[in-house]
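Friendly challenge for the regulars: who can give me the structure tokens for this chain first? No prize, just bragging rights.
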Amino acid sequence: MTFIFRKARRTDVPAIVRMLADDPLGAARERCTDPLPDGYWKAFEALDRDPNQELVVAERDGDVVGCLQLTFIPGLSRQGMTRALVEAVRVDAACRGAGIGRRMMAWAIERARQRGCGMIQLTSDKSRTDAHRFYEALGFVRSHEGMKLML
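First reply, four minutes later:
Bragging rights claimed.
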């Protein structure tokens, strides 16, 4: 079994959207249709151009089985620390429980170190209790209360 992490390609977008839509929250907010809505393609192009964004897939034996997005955020706080923000972590439903998520997060943490980040952070919907246990088992700490304002 060959397993790699790599930068997402345009041809990966349908598989990524399918994983994003494959849970109760994603099913309500994503549109996994053929063809995909233009917004996904425009977002991919913007991510692909931005040096502070890395859309990454986990590939096993040639199939995309996981994805995540890393955003590198320079800042003045904490003496000019750069942070990594992890978003949209997903593992294909048929592959869950095989340790892929753990391997993806270990890769993301190492990638953040390589980019000079002093912290890696994420948010997770309050309803995702399994995800919270997963992140805490990796050493993440609930340190802040998040807020959003939809525009």
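The two ends are 44 Å apart (CA to CA). The CA atoms of residues 65 and 94 lie 9 Å apart. Your move, everyone else.
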